[in-house]
Amino acid sequence: MSTTKVQAKPVAVERRRRFDRRWAGLALLLAAAIYAPFQLVPFHVFQLTMVLVYAVALLGLNLLVGHAGQISLGHGAFFAVGAYAAAVLMDRWALPYPLTLPLAAAVAFVLGLALGVPAMRLRGLYLALVTLAIAIFLVPLLKRFEELTGGSMGLTLAKPQPPAWSGLAEDQWLYFLTLAIAVASFLLAASLLRSRVGRALHAVRDNETAAEVMGVRLSFYKTLAFAWSAMFAGAAGCVYTWVIGFVSPDSFTVNLSITLLAGLVVGGLGSLSGPVLGGLFVMFVPSISQDVNDAAPGVIFGLLIIAVMYVAPTGLAGLAGRLIKKIPRKE
């Protein structure tokens, strides 16, 4: 047997062990997620539901920022588009709520595609300013079209009710709906990143010049990254409307976009577990900051971000990975 084959065998065994451990961990996590709503009070079930909503939104932002290397400070705008698309379809046209999900995602996808075309010529701070401008002017735009969006008062909607055969309470039904959509979204994103599109996005992120020399169409993949990112945000916004039962322009200010980006960086860029950890951050840290100091929650929020970045510069996902590697393994 050659030396190369002898060396390749332990590598293959180690890869298989990593694969098995990963799937075992995912199965355990999914089992815990299914078990949780039956043990928690309704408010805590609602909090976990919102964590999943934000995780789906951050999954889209991660495709754009973490995997394509494009900065965006306007992701909250696409989230709002999905939320309002679902709200308008349900309130004005009485469309059944299951149909609003693909339509809201499609509307956000088209908008992301349209905005991605001019944005593909920009990079760095210039791209950040353009996306920030989108988030800034969205709120007054929503208030202007009062007949459609409800203006400053927003729209109040009936939440999806659990079918009689399920035996679930309303909060549990909304949780499981959101969990199913989150699992499907993560599987779709993982499949996308393993495909040719994912490899092209990584090439654009690492070195645009080298990627172009290798035949990667920069304009096409940058625009596609914006569209996919917006689609996931739109889907998350739609589910947000189901869960909250109310939308208003003041729920989607520029602070939402900044908080989402901060949550992704804290969770871990370029990692599939980063959006989940970021969702926990977006859901709980602002409320913790408010409880610690009512006068200056923003100061506490900023200090917490600095502390996390000091301890885990690659995000919480990177920190967890380093800790796992330090665990002694049995031969």
UniProtKB/TrEMBL annotation:
It is found in: Cell membrane. Keywords: Cell membrane, Membrane, Transmembrane, Transmembrane helix. The keyword Membrane applies. One of its GO terms (cellular component) is plasma membrane. InterPro entries: ABC_transp_permease, LivM-like, MFS_trans_sf. Its main location: membrane. The chain crosses the membrane at residues 21-38, 44-65, 72-90, 96-117, 124-142, 173-193, 224-248, 260-286, 298-324. It is a multi-pass membrane protein. This is Urea ABC transporter permease. Pfam families: BPD_transp_2.
